[in-house]
Sequence to fold (600 residues):
Amino acid sequence: MKALNNIFPLVKNETIKMIKKKRFYVILLVLIVLVPMFAYAQLRQAEDKREKFGTDWRREVQQAITDNQNSLGSDRVPEEWKKYRQIYIQQMKYYLEHDVNPREPGGVSFTREFLDNAATLFIPLLIMGVGSDIVSSERTGGTVKMLLTRPIRRWKILLSKLLTLLMFVSLIIVSTCLICYLISGLFFGYRGWNMPVFTGFQLRGAEVDISGVHAVPQWQYIFMQAGLIWFVSMVVAALAFMVSVLVRSTSASIVIMMATLIAGNILTNMASSWTSAKYLFMVNLGLTNYLAGTPAPIEGMTLGFSLVVLAVWGACSLVVSFLVFTKQDILN
Amino acid sequence: MNRTSRIWRWAGISSAMSTLLLLAGFIYAVSDIANPSAEARLQGGSSTHTEKNVKAGAWDVTAIGDSLAKGTGDDTGRGFARRTVDLLNKEGETSKLVNNLGINGLTTEELLPMLEDPGVKYALQHAGIILLSIGGNDLFNGTDTLTAGEHVPTQAEIDAAIDESSKHFGEVVAQIKKINVQALLVYVSLYNPFSDLEGMREIGNDAVARWNAMAMNALGDYEGTLVVPTYDLFTQNSSRYLSSDHFHPNGDGYQAIAERMAQGIARE
Fold:
């Protein structure tokens, strides 16, 4: 306990550095600029649909079902997509049977959809924005020698940086939700907190087991989404942290992390036949899929599996970070 | 110094609270996905029931059935459903396409369970005019093998198919009338797509004639039904009205069918 006593001032110091370097503000700015663009695009799309279907969502959902049923018969559609569409059809039918609009417009619904789409790339990119240079910038700037000449153990310095990073990860996710809701509310209104959302679709191949399906109010659903995204972001932060320790140049560490994340997004779209890809962390970032009941990119992936894979990657990168940082020589 | 302390306090407290909140969300999500059979905590959709009693417009069209209803073969993708709507609108009525529920390759037997779907029922209830096209796949099953000339169905096979399918057809009509008794049910009767095919012409003509007579009979039992003949259109003009797959109409073919429908539908 005594050893941890003097970690507090270090974390404080790091936090103030983070704020003073305006990293966090840049991320807020990115959100404030981009979210209105997404919201506007969605608004246009909604207007387009309203022209065709009026306010009648049941017709729209039924047409979506019919269109997907039609594509099932086509030989040109890959089997993999057919599975997705069969699952989608069954879920949409479930919504119709229970007379619940799956896409009721509103600020809360927008936030839910945005989180689903942002979980695998957008939010991890924001995390990298603060994580990638947290150690390497000290070296690029030469301030690392200043840090290490103080009479504090090296692992404590690194730990304080890690804690600060994790603090900001939480802040980024909460502010993403808030900014998303506040801005999209201007476009779609601020209602929809209690709209029912179905969750608990269990997939067995192309069949959907609906025995476990239950409705939760939308705010609870977002609460769960944010929790899952938080776990993913923690792991991404740990990896970015490791890269930041290993690579001296900030820009190089950003490029490495960005390339990995984008590679993960590409892999999830095409790696279904390469099954051992499921042990890569970047294929497992879509934890919210398990909530929505969309099929995992690779056969055999479950929530438990993804959590373990992510946890192992996260833990390993932390071990590597601490080993390397405490042992390595600081030249330059 | 005071300012930095304030930053630290603000950042520290808000991030600690965020972390606790997100951690709770994470635990909740994992337990919810792991034990999904927790009973429903919420009855879905009680608030949206009110808007269900929208009155169906007398000229609003829902198309249901096989690839013809869908409009397969029409390069513009409009099919007879949208073309009929356009013709009605041109004549001064206010018509819109509620839904086009046509599915490629659908048979009478496959249509029956579809009519139980709430979404399909909803679309049918909101139509003043229901356009039905079904039966072609029952009779000429596996059109790919037919056009490739690999397998020509025999008279006996087609007879058996008609007997079997006409029973389903009767049920389909009864079910649609049960869902929406006020709507005008327009049935697109069959044509023989093989009238230019030696050896298939005779058998096809015979089967189509029997089927159409059966359909006319079945629909005659109900008020507010209409059978639109298409047989004559394609007998001599198959090259003009059929698309390149030799089975579905092309845009002109659908236009001809739509014109017949618009002519047959009663006006005030």
Notes: DSSP finds twelve helices and five strands in chain B. Chain B has two domains: 2-34, 56-264. The radius of gyration of chain B is 27 Å. Chain B touches chain A through 54 residues (CB under 8 Å).
